[in-house]
Design a protein that fits this description.
Keywords: Plasmid. This is Restriction system protein Mrr-like N-terminal domain-containing protein. By secondary structure, the protein is mainly alpha-helical. Helix content is about 50%, strand content about 10%. The protein has one domain. Strand 2 and strand 3 form a beta hairpin.
């Protein structure tokens, strides 16, 4: 799990972007124990901004016993989360240039990944529910 990305994600989840340290620690603990998906996601996001330093780059500020995400922090997070631009369309060969059809091959069907996606979605939902319950309690 990437600490700095997680801090940004936790802070942006609060309406005004401010959270006291106890809330940040609690939310981070929930996310850290939510499974490999979160750790892998934060590593992917951090890889998009390799020189990330939330304190020296003033992406968050310390105030009143807590931290608040700045506008610059929100912008950096948006850049990290932005989907890559679609690849340029490939130029297809002229259909008339193909002389012979390729020999038919028999492939075994690929196993469905639906159960894996469903599991990931359930894990994320469980983590969000835990986070909401913890916020409701405080």
């Amino acid at each position: 799990m990437n600490f700095q990305v997680t801090v940004l994600k936790v802070l942006v989840s609060y309406p005004d972007g401010f959270a006291v340290l106890e809330d940040i620690k609690r939310d981070m603990a929930i996310l850290a124990t939510s499974g490999r998906d979160w750790a892998e996601r934060t590593k992917r996001l951090a890889a998009r901004v390799p020189d990330l330093d939330i304190f020296s780059q003033r992406l968050i500020e310390r105030r009143n016993g807590g931290w608040r995400i700045t506008d610059k922090g929100r912008e950096v997070l948006a850049v990290m989360e932005a989907r890559p631009a679609p690849a340029q369309p490939m130029e297809l060969p002229d259909a008339r240039a193909v002389e012979e059809p390729a020999p038919a091959t028999t492939l075994s069907p690929m196993p469905s990944i639906t159960p894996v996606r469903r599991l990931r979605k359930q894990t994320r939902r469980q983590a969000l529910r835990q986070l909401q319950r913890a916020r409701a309690r405080s």
